[in-house]
Amino acid sequence: MAKINVNGSVLDVAADPATPLLWVLREQLGLTGTKFGCGIAQCGACTVHINGEAQRSCVLPLESISESDTIVTIEGLSADGSHPVQQAWLQLDVPQCGYCQAGMIMAVAALLEKNPKPSDEEIDAEITNICRCGTYRRVRKGIHLAAAAKA
């Protein structure tokens, strides 16, 4: 049994300590917004915030998370979809299939917390999530729109 702090609640989870956080979130806690993509931390579909940093949860074992760590999933980013990144995504119709978008939104939200006005070069360096539909131009436009909304 482990205790983890997810979306503001300390929860008990019964899982093998080596279980990736992604599967604890999805299967133990029912937080299915975080997606499985590659299983090797390349695609970013599984991105969550841990202590405010974007992390790929598919390779993080449960045992690496302590009760003092704060985990935020897409479900915890905003209860009503009002986060500026979510609003920008809606306004610009950023996703095509949408599978990668929860991870993309989480990565972008973390970037904008650290860097409220990123340049295109900074976006390219920081947002390495893969979108198989190729919506990268709309993603970049959405990032700039969300940054302007936060200002």
TrEMBL record:
<feature type="domain" description="2Fe-2S ferredoxin-type">
    <location>
        <begin position="1"/>
        <end position="77"/>
    </location>
</feature>
<dbReference type="InterPro" id="IPR006058">
    <property type="entry name" value="2Fe2S_fd_BS"/>
</dbReference>
<dbReference type="Pfam" id="PF01799">
    <property type="entry name" value="Fer2_2"/>
</dbReference>
<keyword id="KW-0560">Oxidoreductase</keyword>
<protein>
    <submittedName>
        <fullName>Isoquinoline 1-oxidoreductase subunit alpha</fullName>
        <ecNumber>1.3.99.16</ecNumber>
    </submittedName>
</protein>
<dbReference type="InterPro" id="IPR036884">
    <property type="entry name" value="2Fe-2S-bd_dom_sf"/>
</dbReference>
<dbReference type="InterPro" id="IPR012675">
    <property type="entry name" value="Beta-grasp_dom_sf"/>
</dbReference>
<dbReference type="InterPro" id="IPR002888">
    <property type="entry name" value="2Fe-2S-bd"/>
</dbReference>
<dbReference type="InterPro" id="IPR001041">
    <property type="entry name" value="2Fe-2S_ferredoxin-type"/>
</dbReference>
<keyword id="KW-0408">Iron</keyword>
<dbReference type="GO" id="GO:0051537">
    <property type="term" value="F:2 iron, 2 sulfur cluster binding"/>
</dbReference>
<keyword id="KW-0479">Metal-binding</keyword>
<keyword id="KW-0411">Iron-sulfur</keyword>
<keyword id="KW-0001">2Fe-2S</keyword>
<dbReference type="Pfam" id="PF00111">
    <property type="entry name" value="Fer2"/>
</dbReference>
<dbReference type="GO" id="GO:0047121">
    <property type="term" value="F:isoquinoline 1-oxidoreductase activity"/>
</dbReference>
<dbReference type="InterPro" id="IPR036010">
    <property type="entry name" value="2Fe-2S_ferredoxin-like_sf"/>
</dbReference>
<dbReference type="GO" id="GO:0046872">
    <property type="term" value="F:metal ion binding"/>
</dbReference>
<dbReference type="InterPro" id="IPR051452">
    <property type="entry name" value="Diverse_Oxidoreductases"/>
</dbReference>
